[in-house]
Known about the structure:
By secondary structure, the chain is mostly helical. The chain contains 5 helices and no strands. About 65% of the residues lie in helices and about 0% in strands. The chain is elongated.
Amino acid sequence: MKTHHYSQQFLHPQSSLHHGKDLGITADLNALRAAQDKMESLRDGTPERIAAERDYIKNANIITEKLGNTLITSDKTNALEVNAALAEVQGGISLIKDESIRKEGAITVGKANVITRGFRINM
Length: 123
């Protein structure tokens, strides 16, 4: 079953943001979506699925790190786009089945939550 990519309603395929801003994550989001699609197409526990989960978490970490940059988080006008992208990251992490990769995913979710809370505090 294919899940909905959460931030697609906010993010154009050609740009990582809907207001014409570019946070530099378009290629990363495309890679994340491709990794999620591949992960969902594979049976749990297979070596191929585990490799796809590792690829997903790698892309999720890249996006989370980029969006945690203070140049992005200090501008509250980025909140909608950043939160949409982080929701997409977190949604895919919930699909990971391998326990060791899930633990790494929990760290990424924690970082994403800190970024999201930062916008709420600064608004």
